[in-house]
Amino acid sequence: MDHVIPARKPGSFFIPVLGDSRKTFNSAILNPQHLYMKSLTCILTLGTYLLLLASCSKDDKDMPSAVVFSAAGNISGKMEEFRTRLGNLNTVPGAGEGRREINWDGVPDSMLNEALPNRFFNTIGNNVPASRQRGLVYEIGELQVGSNFAHINAEAASEFTPFSGSSSFANVNSNDWGIDFEEPGQAVPAAVRAFGAVFADVDTDSSTALEFFDGQRSLGRYFVPRKPAGQSFSFLGVLFPDRIVTHVRVVHQGKLSDGSKDISQGGTQDLVTMDDLIYSEPVRK
C-alpha cells in the first residue's frame, strides 16, 4: 500500500516525529526561539546521559579485581585451591609471605565456652607461644569456642557441627563485627591480600557475608553460599591481587545469645557458626 502524505495548508510544514507518521504544525508556533529551547533541552538531556554513562564506567573501572573461591557442601577442594594460591603455611612470626590458619582446636579446654580475648591469636609478649601469634584480632561482641554452643542457645544447638576437629567458634552476641590484622607477634597494624572462612549452617541466600576494606574504602561485599540440603558447611575466600585488605566485616542474620530457633527449625533468623580461617600473611602497612 502506498504511503499517502496528507495535504497541508499554506504556511505550514511537516516535522517527522518518532513513533508517529507525520504531524502538521503551524509555522507560527515553531518560531526560532521555540526551536532553540527544544534543541537546548535535547542537548542537556544527552549531556546528562553521557555523564551518567561515564560515571558508571568509571565506577566499574575503579572496582578492584578479586578472585573468589566459593563452595557449599563438599568444600575441601575449594579450600585447597585457596591455600595453594596463598602459599606455604606459616607457624611462627617473621614471615613475609605465605598464609596463616586458625582452626580453634588449639584453644585450651579451660577457655572453651568462655569469652575469648580479642587478641588471643596475636598475644604480645616474650614468652607467648608462636601458636598464639598469628596476626588476627577481632572487635565487637563476644567470641566463644565450643562444639555446639548449647550453653548459649539450646534451641539451635543441633544445627551446628565443627568442620575440623571438635571445636568451632561464634560471635555469640553480635551479628555485625570486624576482624583486623597485625604483624604476627607485634601490636603493629598490618594488611592481607586474602581472607577466607568456613561457615556452618548457612540456610538462606544473602544471609551471611564478608565485606572487605582497604582503610575506609569498601572493596566489596561477598555472600556466603547456602549449604545444600542434608549438609552443613560453606566456604568463602576472596583474594585481591592488586589491593590490600586492612579490615574484614562479618555479617550474619541472627545472634546465638537471642536464644531463638534457627530458620530451618521454624525461627525467623538464619543462625550460623564459623570454623577454619585462612588468610594471607599479615604484612606491616
Short summary of the structure?
15% of the residues lie in helices and 29% in strands. The protein has two helices and 16 strands. The protein has helices at residues 32-62, 76-86, and strands spanning 12-16, 22-26, 67-72, 99-102, 136-139, 143-146, 168-171, 176-181, 190-191, 194-200, 208-214, 217-223, 233-239, 247-252, 273-280, 283-284.
Order of helices and strands: EEHEHEEEEEEEEEEEEE
What is the terminal-to-terminal distance?
Answer: 76 Å
Portion in helices: 10-25%
CA-based shape? globular
* Low-confidence residue ranges: 1-30, 49-60
Q: Which structural category do the helix and sheet elements fall into?
A: alpha+beta
**What does the average pLDDT come to?**
85
Number of helices: 2
Number of strands: 16
Largest sheet features: 5 strands, antiparallel
* Rg (CA only): 29 Å
State the strand order across the main sheet: 3-13-10-15-4
Strand content: 25-35%
Protein topology:
Elements: E1 12-16, E2 22-26, H1 32-62, E3 67-72, H2 76-86, E4 99-102, E5 136-139, E6 143-146, E7 168-171, E8 176-181, E9 190-191, E10 194-200, E11 208-214, E12 217-223, E13 233-239, E14 247-252, E15 273-280, E16 283-284
Antiparallel strand pairs: 1-2, 3-13, 4-15, 5-8, 6-7, 8-14, 9-16, 10-13, 10-15, 11-12, 11-14
